[in-house]
Specification:
single chain, alpha+beta, Alpha-Beta Plaits, 2 domains, 8 helices, disordered N terminus, disordered C terminus
Length: about 220
């Protein structure tokens, strides 16, 4: 152990090896970010996350090169990293997968396993693209939350039912709430759209109805 601590600042890696490892980490990180953009299906695309995947691969490569085969460096790095607190919530499971993807490829590049880094990036990326393009594993449709407020004697006084049947495969009433104002109702549905590209048209048609005050369509906490 004393020998490990005595050699903590000694490294045998050359500048050429560092540059090569970082270059492979950069290339793989760019490829991973491109795959993420190609396969992403979530509601809110974040450019900062795409950039973070590239940085993560390169930084992981640096961390692995710093540790090397030195046990003392590994313990020291764990202690230093333990003070960092990550408070950003990751909503999509796929985002977590891509984070681990970048970490693993960065590790491979950092230890000089360049063929493994490139090969794994290509093979795993190909599987991700094929799964994203395949319709066999896709659900029939995503569930949206439709909420609207209408003014009338009863909720059935406004003819919204034909519009829902036109744009939705299914629509399930989940809540009817009366507001403080007289004859004002807030109604909520779970809807499965026939064509998700026409969600704006659904909202537009509902807003044309007499007595309709507010119309909101939600998916993953984002309103349309």
């Amino acid at each position: 152990m004393l020998q490990e601590f005595s050699t903590i600042f000694v490294t045998s890696i050359t500048f050429e090896q560092v540059a090569t490892n970082l270059l492979f980490a950069l290339v793989c990180g760019l490829t991973i970010s491109w795959i993420y953009r190609l396969t992403y299906r979530g509601p809110g695309f974040a450019v900062s996350f795409v950039h973070a995947l590239i940085y993560l691969a390169m930084i992981t490569a640096v961390v692995i090169m710093v540790i090397g085969n030195n046990l003392a460096r590994a313990f020291g790095l764990v202690g230093a990293m333990s003070i960092i607190r990550f408070r950003t919530a990751v909503k999509d499971t796929a985002d977590i997968v891509f984070i681990f993807f970048s970490l693993a490829i960065g590790m491979a590049a950092g230890v000089g396993m360049h063929k493994l880094a490139i090969g794994a990036t290509m093979l795993i990326g190909l599987v991700m693209i094929l799964m994203a393009k395949s319709t066999a594993v896709l659900p029939m449709g995503r569930k949206f939350l439709l909420q609207f407020s209408l003014l009338g004697d009863t909720p059935d006084a406004v003819p919204y039912e034909p519009i829902l049947k036109q744009y939705c495969r299914t629509h399930k009433l989940i809540n009817v709430k009366t507001e403080e104002e007289e004859n004002l109702y807030e109604i909520s549905f779970y809807v499965d759209l026939r064509d998700e590209q026409k969600h704006y048209e659904l909202v537009k048609e509902l807003r044309k109805l007499a007595g309709m005050l507010r119309v909101n369509l939600f998916y993953d906490e984002e309103a349309i």
